[in-house]
Amino acid sequence: MKLKISGDKLTFASAHILTKHDxxxxxxxxxxxxxxxxxxxxxENNMIIDFSIFKSRIGELLKKYDHKIILPKKNKDLKIETxxxxxxxxxxxxxxxxxxxxxxxxxxxxxxxxxxxxxxIHDLIKEEYQQFSITVTIAxxxxxxxxxxxxx
Length: 152
Hints:
Layout: E1 2-5, E2 11-16, E3 28-39, H1 51-63, E4 68-72, E5 78-82, E6 86-91, E7 96-100, E8 104-107, H2 114-128, E9 133-141, E10 144-148
Parallel strand pairs: 2-4, 4-8
Antiparallel strand pairs: 1-3, 2-3, 3-9, 5-6, 6-7, 9-10
């Protein structure tokens, strides 16, 4: 059986930069909508998992992305310098940014595309819920949506 969660608690607003992209190489943001589908066997209570507990846990996981500037640590086109107070970012096109450290979330990915964000969030959920098949769907706009299930 499959269970799907979505809604207001599974959203986050973040800013990011996509290097080597005409329009998105500048700092910009999205209001991301997340949907998580799990597939598994029924438990002794005839449920795959308790909706409210699962939705609450995923909502907590997504909170760390909300109202942050998300930066990819593995991107070779970005120079990222950090200290306890600030994050300095220089892009390959010469743009320079300086942000308070508490406003930045550094991610262990190559780019903050919705494709890699969906894989990254999938992998975090899968660590905790290994017994389930998981699909994470993220919409950065109503018409730009990606799903990742770990089989891709």
